[in-house]
Design a protein that fits this description.
The chain is 31% helix and 21% strand. The chain is α/β, with parallel strands linked by helices.
């Protein structure tokens, strides 16, 4: 992969972040199940992950309608694509082999390997990918933990309405990343499919049909906005336009978390305005906002005092071990970061130093480090810069528009 050189700068100006990756995944699948593959706007660049979902969903729907068996579904490096579409294929009775790249083949699938065979689905795997799925999913009760990836819950929620009768999802432990599940339920409702919240999970009536939504609008991405909120907090003056302030996205929490850090964060004329305040460390429970941890950790490295991030163990199973990646990247630039089993302890420094940082082939790690590197005392080279295409292909274009100095170094 390529590397990028970041020179010191002050990121200031106005930016519009891309469509929410989380919302786009869900909308693309609901639209495909409604028979409409063009719900995502043509004039918006698709991230690699969302493109994988759109392509794979169309492939599964076409196989279901044509009776084609034995398809191979390439999920790229997208955990959402994989975990959302495995039960969809099973609900439609599509025989499929799911494959992927990067760290995806080794990311956990145990929840499905446990619950799907109990409901009529044959799963053949050696613990990861490739995964062979055959048979047809049957209605019933699905019991699963709430403290693993919410992507498993979303996959079942999307697929169970297609079955012949009512199903139930019961959680055996408290739900983490609840905002992502709320977003799933809202998107399903938008496409005419209903679920009922219970004390321990959800009831999902069967024999439902997704309805076409020709003018469906996918909102902007709060998780990507977090990197430019980070930029404003670290000394810039950034306005982010197009965000939904009534969003179901759990990562909307970035607004209040950076306020608690001490950044000046206000809503003005429909935009979020962020500038530097007196930043101080704090304690952060990451159980509901795991995708915000890279941006929060990078900002914490330049705060006064200590920041403790906890309940983030799942980040060790993302595109990289994100806890290790952020600790290593920041420490290589003069940061003071210590890993714990489920988080990070960060003692702020006044300034990062010039040097080299490993992007670990992880889009969120690269973006978080690139913003922090703008406040270093010299040039910083970050590896694997092209990994941003996974979620935000235009990130470095927007970074430069805000005055950032980023120079591609090639491979």
């Amino acid at each position: 992969m390529s590397s990028i050189l970041i020179e010191p700068s002050r990121l200031s100006g106005r930016v519009k972040v891309p469509l929410s990756k989380s919302a786009a995944h869900r909308a693309a699948i609901c639209a495909a199940l409604a028979g409409n593959l063009s719900v995502l706007p043509e004039n918006e660049p698709l991230s690699d992950d969302v493109a994988a979902t759109k392509r794979a969903a169309a492939q599964i729907i076409n196989a279901s309608e044509s009776g084609t068996g034995g398809i191979t579904v390439d999920c790229g490096e997208s955990g959402s694509t994989l975990r959302f579409l495995i039960p969809v294929a099973a609900a439609l009775g599509v025989k499929a082999v799911f494959t992927g790249h990067g760290r995806l083949p080794s990311r956990p699938l145990g929840v499905y390997l446990d619950c799907l065979p109990r409901r009529g689905v044959n799963c053949e795997s050696e613990g990861g990918l490739p995964l062979k799925v055959s048979g047809r999913l049957t209605p019933g009760v699905f019991t699963l933990p709430g403290d693993v990836s919410s992507q498993f819950i979303t996959g079942l929620l999307l697929s169970l309405p297609l079955l012949e009768s009512q199903s139930e999802i019961r959680l055996s432990s408290p739900l983490e990343s609840a905002g992502y599940v709320d977003m799933t339920v809202q998107t399903m409702e938008d496409f005419g499919v209903h679920v009922e919240k219970t004390q321990r999970g959800w009831l999902i009536p069967g024999r439902q049909s997704y309805k076409t939504q020709e003018a469906y609008a996918v909102e902007r991405d709060w998780s990507q906005a977090a990197f430019f909120i980070e930029a404003g907090a670290l000394g810039g003056d950034v306005e982010i336009e197009g965000l939904n302030f009534s969003s179901k996205q759990g990562d909307m929490a970035a607004e209040n978390l950076f306020k608690k850090f001490g950044a000046a964060v206000t809503r003005k004329h429909g935009m979020l305005s962020v500038s530097r305040g007196s930043l101080r460390g704090m304690e952060i429970d990451a159980s509901q906002i795991p995708d915000l941890v890279p941006a929060l950790a990078a900002a914490a490295a330049l705060c006064k005092g200590r920041t403790v991030i906890y309940n983030a163990k799942r980040l060790r199973l993302k595109e990289s071990d994100r806890l290790s990646a952020m600790a290593g990247g920041l420490n290589s630039l003069g940061g003071r970061v210590r890993e714990t089993p489920d988080g990070l302890v960060i003692d702020g420094v006044k300034k990062l130093t010039a040097g080299k940082a490993d992007g670990c082939r992880d889009h969120r790690v690269v973006m978080a480090l690139a913003v922090a590197a703008s406040r270093a005392d010299g040039g910083v080279t970050i590896s694997d810069s092209e990994s941003v295409s996974k979620s935000y292909p235009a990130f470095f274009d927007d970074y430069r528009r805000l005055g950032g100095k980023a120079y591609d170094l090639g491979r």
